[in-house]
Design goal:
Layout (H helix, E strand, L loop, with lengths): L1 H14 L13 E11 L6 E2 L2 E5 L2 E13 L2 E8 L2 E7 L3 E9 L2 E7 L6 E18 L5 E3 L2 E13 L4 E10 L2 E6 L2 E7 L3 E10 L1
Antiparallel strand pairs: 1-4, 1-15, 2-3, 3-6, 4-5, 5-8, 6-7, 7-9, 8-9, 9-11, 10-13, 11-12, 12-15, 13-14
Keywords: Signal
Protein name: Outer membrane beta-barrel protein
Family: Belongs to the OmpW/AlkL family.
């Protein structure tokens, strides 16, 4: 919840830059390409009787957004698979998992009269886990649905191009089994920092 509060605080701070000029028009499309850094929260729940820790990872990310109204867009976030090592206190290294976190958000882009264009969004995330491996046996993680909150800032470098910095908090919780037996819930809840080039069509 601390990370969610920070994301909301950033959203409020960015909103203070708002002004009277429209940023995006109804019917516009944007496509973004960049990298995303997934940083799970500390203390990722209790698994197999110990405290679980999920490490961070960086991968290419992609966004597509369609503006249903002026300044109001529906965005899909996609990425190449993220890979994380999992450790458990008292055990050490417990396994490796991959995941894909597609996220659908409704974003509001604040109109400004400058090259700086902040936005905020709220959406839903679906995370699917695969290629789990563990020296302890057969590890499986259930897929997850959760809320996603994001805030970003675009800097226009041309009429149709912008550089984007984005922070996104995602609620990801997954039940884990080892050799078919439940061992606990991994509470990942990462902060995702993205840097992208965004092009408007």
């Amino acid at each position: 919840m601390t990370r969610m509060a920070a994301a909301l605080a950033l959203s409020t701070a960015l909103a203070t830059l708002a002004g009277p000029l429209a940023a995006q028009s109804q019917g516009d499309w944007t496509v973004g390409v960049g990298v995303g850094y997934v940083n799970p929260k500390s203390n990722n729940g209790t698994m197999a009787g110990g405290i679980a820790t999920v490490d961070d990872n960086t991968q290419p990310i992609f966004t597509v957004e369609y503006f249903i109204r002026d300044n109001l867009g529906i965005e899909l976030l996609a990425a190449t698979p993220f890979k994380h090592d999992v450790s458990i206190s008292g055990i050490g290294y417990a396994g490796t998992v991959k995941h894909l976190p597609p996220t659908l958000s409704l974003n509001y882009h604040f109109p400004t009269n400058s090259a700086w264009k902040p936005y905020v969004g709220l959406g839903v995330n679906y995370t699917t886990f695969f290629e789990e491996s563990s020296p302890l046996g057969t590890l499986k993680l259930d897929d997850s649905f959760g809320v996603a909150v994001n805030a970003g800032l675009d800097y226009q470098i041309s009429d149709r191009g912008a550089l984007r910095l984005n922070a996104r908090w995602i609620n990801i919780e997954t039940d884990a089994t080892l050799n078919g037996a439940a061992i606990g819930t991994a509470e990942i809840d990462p902060l995702v920092i993205g840097v992208q080039y965004v092009h408007r069509f």
